[in-house]
Amino acid sequence: MNIPYQVIFERSPVAKLLVDKEGIIQVANEEAGKLFGYDCSELIGNSIEMLVPEKQRANHPALVAGYTRQPVPKLMGQGRDLFGVRRDGSLVPIEVGLNPIDLGGEALFMACVIDISERKRADEKFRAVVEFAPNGILMINSDREIVLCNKQIEEIFGYSQGELHGNPIEMLVPDDFKAPHPKFVQSFFDAPETRAMGIGRELFGRHKSGKLVPVEVGLRPFFGAQGLCVICSVVDISYRREAEAEIQRKTEEIEEFSYRTSHDLRSPLKSISALAECVLADLEEGEVPQAVHGAEEIQHLSSRLLQLTEDILTLTKVDADAGELREFDFDEWQTTTQEKFRADLEEADARIEFQCFHKCPLVIQAGRLIHVVDNLIGNAIKYRNPKRKCSVWVRTFSQPGMQGSGGRFFVQVEDNGVGIPASKQPEVFRMFQRFHGNQIQGSGLGLYIVKKQIAKLDGQITFESSESGTVFTVDLPLVASEPLSNQTGR
Fold it and tell me: Which one of 317, 333, 357 terminates a domain?
């Protein structure tokens, strides 16, 4: 069968153009006309530049001349977007294959043009899915180069997409595993299958800062324009590690709490039981003074148990809702606090001095703050120094933030008491910590509860202590930042 090559050229489903060394179109098939919106006859005899976008036209003749000097089969536009321009001025994404042809001594080249609009649309959809995926997604080619990644990868590893593209995947691998990693990648390309990395062992990625990030990684082969690639789904599990550590900490805390609580309850109860028997025996023998002394000891131990029980109940309520946020009324608070501690102050011959230096209102869960300050004042009175008159100073300060946010509010409670021994200061906020023996009544839970209350307020507490006394400073976020002097009615 003798089929003329011209018929094959004309009926080809691929757009084809035969161009001379001057860039003039000598022959164009029907598909070329359809692709660019011309009749075939309108293309023939015109410069190939009529199909080139205006921005590239000035440089295009030089590219044609360069190709005719070294005419070899090649694919145009590798690694960059290539477009043709239609009759109506619209751009069409294309791939162009070039092949030199010697036709009767005349050097020509064949341009095969493929419309890749559908591929582009599919690629854009794919990239959109990748970009908005909740997990980190990156894709590497068989040369281990990162060819695609999303915003989540930026957040996990700290690199921008521009810093990652084109670089080897090993830049995200910990230093200890960089050397053997290319072999692992090659083994996947040799036998591509969907699988999870690091099964049965901990897996880490390397952040831009150098820190290690615990991750889970899923691998999936992908066949695309660049051939076989691998899509890596990366999940930062730092939060999970932190949650596991927090669960472990709380478990240990609960175990310690259960042990210490049972011990602190059992011991006084045994003592009360034994003392009660002694009181009964003393009464039978007519030893009334001894019985009275035993009854007083029972009363003292009962008070300790009552305090411990109240502190335990308070601790169980720390996580409960402590009321809505509202502006704290410092005038009312001062009056209430003075009244609340009146009996203790008179018994200890002590005084409380309030010094409110704050300029901004404090919006807070009032119940939590009151509990914190009450506990600190109570401790100041309880652990007073018998060698000097007990004084407690409660001060407030505020530090406005920039543009209505980021401000801080400080509440400071200072005393001139016995202080906290330096060796014990690291343990101040732990459960059941008491630093002055049993001569001063207390459960050892007070400051532990204080710290938990402050944490619920998103604040922090620090202290300084010596033989001259102790200063506790509570640092709280300032929700409202308008100065009091600028507020209506202030």
Answer: 317
Tell me, what's the pLDDT at 123? 78
The larger pLDDT score, comparing residue 289 to residue 316, is at 289
pLDDT reported for residue 247: 81
Distances in Å between the Cα of 5 and the Cα atoms of 9, 32, 74, 125 are 6, 17, 22, 40
Q: What is the pLDDT of residues 317-349, one digit of tens each?
A: 666 665 678 899 999 999 999 998 998 899 999
Q: Are residues 326 and 461 in the same domain?
A: yes
Confidence check: pLDDT of 79 > 70: no
* Residue ranges making up the domain that contains 214: 120-236
Q: Which residues face 19 on adjacent strands?
A: 25, 109
**Tally of domains in the chain:** 4
Q: Which residue has the tokens 């690694």?
A: 79
Query: pLDDT band at 68, cuts 50/70/90?
Result: confident
3-class DSSP string for the chain: CCCCHHHHHHHCCCEEEEEECCCEEEEECHHHHHHHCCCHHHHCCCEHHHHCCHHHHCCHHHHHHHHHHCCCCEEECCCCCCEEECCCCCEEEEEEEEEEEEECCEEEEEEEEEECHHHHHHHHHHHHHHHCCCCEEEEECCCCEEEEECHHHHHHHCCCHHHHCCCEHHHHCCHHHHCCHHHHHHHHHHCCCCEEECCCCCCEEECCCCCEEEEEEEEEEEEECCEEEEEEEEEECHHHHHHHHHHHHHHHHHHHHHHHHHHHHHHHHHHHHHHHHHHHHHHHCCCHHHHHHHHHHHHHHHHHHHHHHHHHHHHHHCCCCCCCCEECCHHHHHHHHHHHCHHHHHHHCCEEEEEECCCCCCEECHHHHHHHHHHHHHHHHHCCCCCCCCEEEEEEEEECCECCECEEEEEEEEECCCCCCHHHHHHCCCCCCCCCCCCCCCCCCHHHHHHHHHHHCCCEEEEEEECCEEEEEEEEEECCCCCHHHCCCC
Whether the predicted model's global pTM rises above the 0.90 cut: no
Residues 6+ apart with CB under 8 A from 412: 393, 394, 395, 396, 397, 471, 472, 473, 474
What band does 429 get if pLDDT is binned at 50, 70 and 90? Answer: confident
Domain endpoint, select from 115, 135, 166: 115
